Amino acid sequence: MSKHDTIAAEGAVYYLFGATGDLARRKLFPALFSLYKEGKLAENFAVVGLARRPRTNEQFRADVHESIGEFCRYKADDAALWERFAEHFVYMSLDINNVDGFRELAALSKGLDEKFNIPGNRLFYLALAPNLFGPVSFNLRDGGLLESPGWNRLVIEKPFGYDLESARELNQQLSQVFEESEIYRIDHYLGKEMVQNIQVLRFSNAFFEPLWNNKHIANVQISLSETVGVEERGGYYDKSGALRDMVQNHMMQMLAMIAMEPPSRLHAEDLRDEKVKALRSLRPFDSAAEVNQHVIRGQYSEGANNDKPLSGYRQEDSVNPESTTETYFAARVYLDNFRWAGVPFYIRTGKRLPVKTTEVVIEFKNVPDNMLFAQRHDLAPNLLVIRVNPMEGIYIKINAKKPGVDNVVQPVSMEFCQSCMIGINTPEAYERLIYDAARGESTYFTRWDEVAEAWSFVDRIASAWREDSSTLQLYPAGSWGPASVDALLAADGFHWWPVNGQAEDNVIWISGGPK
């Protein structure tokens, strides 16, 4: 995108709390540089890096430059551009528990407003632990940071609480300082290109909406698989697990995007209203027995992937050797509303699986058995696959006559590969979300009632697991999870479809597909 078709965000001071942390280095600095290079950040902005450890402005800018060189899709090889960008970055060592430091920060901010002609707008990005969100918000208020003439926006990372009770307590703290409209809860999956493309696919194509219901769809499969283990996050992950780390946020959001009703207007609040309605329609698990019937929890043990030996979860650093924390989650869930009644949604996520992928499979109902071709052939169901990561695109499978052969029907696949068409240099999720927050566009941020509904659903599962830890099933690292995962679908007459990176047998690609 050129600067000529780009609208720059309104000038603001960006405060990066946790500026010496991994998130800032890997995601936030590269995102800001990409936005600046593409003209989405006007010249009247400033970035204040905030953390406890001491840094000079020069050291901080060197850290930013190194981060861009390692993680950004653009390189800082234009010296003049880099110098213009870097001069907007300053650093301040801050004890977030000392309100006097916030008063110093307010004085620094006034100087930046004057230097860069910023109209008093403030965007506070808290790349911190959730238990610090409340105290930092109070000190922002008491330190005078919210008294400028412009707008104030608070951007916070997941996890938003540990359960519904802690999330509600956290929200009560934030709401004493910020309005709900000023709070931007990031779920970076909502910044991914193909997740945002779901609503375009659904609501801008006339032939999808009439079929997007229980009369035509047999089941929906949402897979979010990772090949990595817990890496250096063992201490955090052992207190969280797949249910809180992935299901409560990423998977619930993707499910809501697929299941939601068409919004009455393309307005952020209308779209988020429909997502909340979808989450409210989730059938709750009323007992531990229901959880055990519909939910599978797993933990990876020793295994291998591509002949590379992999250690088990309990052997990872900072993990309890007797841990019962789940690294795998699969479930059959239902939405009790007019559109989706009776359609199973199968969701699964896990670590140390064979393929890294995120995708949604819509399996349509087959033609009636007494139809002409169904009488003679074992017809495969039609599929619509939305590929989110790492390949981005849309895959459709239909049945067609085999060329040159009478009475032979075969599956035929067509694919639109967005990442192939655009290439690797596509905007990262954090670029889109920071840009949206700077413009006050809240569509792809989670509202409090969305968070509450998701926690309400997963808390019942967590409660059942606390009652009975014996439901944990081990699976070899490098496999697709516990064997019972296949039985979950087989009981309904279905099976998991191959995901991104796995070949399908007896499928002919007619264009754009892998060779």
Mean pLDDT score, rounded?
91
CATH architecture of the largest domain: 2-Layer Sandwich
Assign the CATH topology of the largest domain.
Dihydrodipicolinate Reductase, domain 2
Mind telling me the CATH superfamily name of the largest domain? Dihydrodipicolinate Reductase, domain 2
- Based on Cα principal axes, name the global outline: globular
CATH domain class of the largest domain: Alpha Beta
| Largest sheet descriptor | 10 strands, mixed
Instruction: Give the strand line-up of the largest sheet.
Output: 17-8-11-12-7-13-14-15-16-18
Number of helices: 16
Question: SS-based structural class?
Answer: alpha/beta
Strand content: 15-25%
Amount of helix: 25-40%
How many discrete domains? 2
Low-confidence stretches: 509-515
Spatial separation of the terminal alpha carbons: 31 Å
Radius of gyration: 24 Å
Give a count of the beta strands, DSSP E runs of length 2 or more.
Answer: 18
Describe the model.
This protein is α/β, with parallel strands linked by helices and about 525 residues long. It folds into two domains: about 10-155, Rossmann fold, CATH 3.40.50.720; about 190-490, Dihydrodipicolinate Reductase, domain 2 (2-Layer Sandwich), CATH 3.30.360. About 35% of the residues lie in helices and about 20% in strands. The chain has helices at about 20-35, 55-70, 80-85, 100-115, 135-140, 165-175, 195-205, 235, 240-260, 270-280, 290-295, 370-375, 420, 430-440, 450-465, 485-490; strands at about 15, 45-50, 90-95, 120-125, 150-155, 185, 215-225, 295-300, 305, 310, 330-335, 345-350, 355-365, 385-390, 395-400, 410-415, 475, 510. The protein has a ten-stranded mixed beta sheet, sandwiched between helices. Helix 5 runs parallel beside helix 6 (about 165-175), helix 6 runs antiparallel to helix 15 (about 450-465) and helix 10 runs parallel beside helix 15. It is globular, with a radius of gyration of 24 Å. The chain starts with 12 loop residues before the first strand and ends with a strand. The relative contact order is 0.13. Residues about 510-515 have low confidence and may be disordered.
